[in-house]
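Hey, I'm writing a tutorial for new members on how sequence and structure tokens pair up, and I'd like a real worked example in the thread rather than a made-up one. If someone can provide the structure for the chain below, I'll link this post from the tutorial.
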Amino acid sequence: MARRVSLPSADDLFRPTADDAAPRDEKAAHAQQAAEQAAAEKAAGEARRTSGRVKHDEKMTVYVTSAELLELEQARLTLRARHGVVADRGRLVREAVALALEDLEENGADAAIVRRLNGEG
């Protein structure tokens, strides 16, 4: 006689996790606290740092052309072959964003990102 397998119910499968169970106000307070801490660190003169290889809480999708993706992959391979730097494409993008934001903060209207977005560079 075949035994029936017991499967979890939908409630068990779709139950909130510990992070999702936190009230929205608590999450907003945590986000505000993190922003204030980042501002305090910036005011203290610390350089902007990327998160590196950690579990990230947020996700952003960016669409690129096949040529841009190929250039990014070639840059990743160049960093590895010539400089011994091992980084995935996500880390390269986070580092590039950090550099652009740091330049914007330091140079304002003269930042490279401002010039490029205005079609000057």
